[in-house]
Amino acid sequence: DGGITQSPKYLFRKEGQNVTLSCEQNLNHDAMYWYRQDPGQGLRLIYYSQIVNDFQKGDIAEGYSVSREKKESFPLTVTSAQKNPTAFYLCASSQLAGVGANVLTFGAGSRLTVL
Amino acid sequence: GQQVMQIPQYQHVQEGEDFTTYCNSSTTLSNIQWYKQRPGGHPVFLIQLVKSGEVKKQKRLTFQFGEAKKNSSLHITATQTTDVGTYFCAGPGGGKLIFGQGTELSVKP
After folding, report:
1. Spatial distance between the Cα atoms of B107 and B15, rounded to a whole number of angstroms
2. Which listed residue, of A65, A109, B15, B99, carries a Cα 20 to 30 Å from B38's Cα?
3. Best residue in A6, A56, A104 to probe B by mutation, most B CBs within 10 Å?
4. For each successive 10 residues of chain A (115 residues), what is the average pLDDT?
5. CA separation for the pair A70, A67 (Å, rounded)
6. Residue closest to B8 by CA, chosen among B98, B70, B87
7. In whole angstroms, what is the distance from residue B51 CA to residue B67 CA?
8. Is A84 exposed, middle or buried (0-12, 13-18, 19+ CB in 10 A)?
9. Which residue of B has its CA nearest to A47?
10. Over the range A10-30, which residues count as b (16 or more CB within 10 Å of their CB) and which as e?
């Protein structure tokens, strides 16, 4: 079945440590996105990529980094510079053209807790 | 910048009552999408509206897109406990999708 796989599902990190969240899709989607969700809040865009080897900052990119070396993969690194990293992180993907263009398919999410 | 506002933030209803959430954009939208996120889950796409004044139904859910293409609503008739979750609207802007803050629906049996 096609879909998006995020790992790990739960992650605990000590302050000052970097952590990388994995996101892989087999939907052949062009675009991939990272969102952050805090309790009782909406989805805030961190980074997005519409093509391999290119990505753009979203609304809250500070303290995060990404790479898009392959179409299927869009890992997110939460760096020690992110002041409040405890949150639920959602990866998504979409086609950019054709039927279903710009409709997002989400992964199951990764819940990061900083101790 | 472009904003998508959604109200109310929370709605508590008795099972069988109706529920409506409203979405307003600061700019005209080419389309609007609705997603549902169950507690502990991830957002799942429900529907996309494209035409001015468009109305679409999915069983007990009715989606409307305003004539000016700046607002939208989702109405659920006779809520059930399976309707529990957070409903998000989202509109395109600047090559990305901008989400409203969501409306969290709780249903008391």
Report:
1. 6
2. A65
3. A104
4. 90 92 96 92 93 95 97 96 93 88 94 92
5. 9
6. B87
7. 8
8. exposed
9. B96
10. ebebeeeeebebebbbeeebb
Chain B residue at shortest CA distance from A50:
B95
A interface test, pick of B6, B9, B37, B42 with most A CB neighbours within 10 Å: B42
User: Does A43 sit within 8 Å of B43, measured CB to CB?
Assistant: yes
Q: Which of these, A36, A25, A21, A22, lies nearest to A93 by C-alpha position? A: A25
CB A55 within 8 A of CB A68: yes
B33, B42, B95: residue with CB nearest A106: B42
